[in-house]
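Revision sheet: structure tokens.
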Amino acid sequence: MPREAEISLNERNFLLQALRENTRLDGRAFDAFRPLELSFGDEHGIADVKLGNTRVLARISASITAPFPDRKFDGIFTITTELSPMASPAFEVNRQTPTSTLLSRLLEKAIRRSNALSTESLCITAGSHVWSLRADVHVLSHDGGLVDASCIAVLAALQHFRLPDVSVSGGKVKIYTLVERVPVKLAMMHIPICVTFSFFEGGEIVLVDATLVEEGVREGELVVTINKYGEVCQVAKMGGKVVDAITLLNCTNIALEKAKEITAFVDRRLEEDAKLKDIGGLIAELSAENER
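Predicted:
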């Protein structure tokens, strides 16, 4: 099975020696993210995230279906991940890898299980019609930080997405077009942000947003999912060196600051995109038309 090319012993020693001297190869501080870029597609629900050389595209799609029998008042929300060979030679088409499995599980816990999206708001008629949302995550370039970039992409796409307005008459559901009614924003309960920490030298050195080379040398990793209100949604420790309580608390405090910064950045980009799409006050005109 294909896998990532391992770095040489000289590269490993050079990187570790640089970290001992408080220097990262790209010049960043130990607690700094790489440059973050976020753009949206022409359609609602498409978010393109670039975190350094890592690039992730998330797309939200929706369809009407029947709810699960034991959750008649809840809509359905699923997350699927696709890691193509274009992103890394370690990935194969239609074949699960440990990386893709771990990514899917972490995103599932961070976003869906933390109730970031209100599934009750997706209900149209209890027990018969609900919205089924699907978030497709496509990894286009892999240079480390997949969990963080994918989490940002999915959350940005969810906030950017708009559901068509619907009405129910005689048990039949009518879906309105953009011209007929203004589409509806999704009901987001909170915005959980994933921040990944990498440990070196027995946990003495902690890095935020490690590159692929740094990930190949680290002795352990920790993913903290937290929102801007300081509510911890997930703490995932995938083996490696033991992390003491003080280090864990420090990581949580750093994650909180990063969550606030990233949330503000995403909100700012959403506002900018909304202004670009609202040419000549089209949305306001449609809203006024609906009210009349």
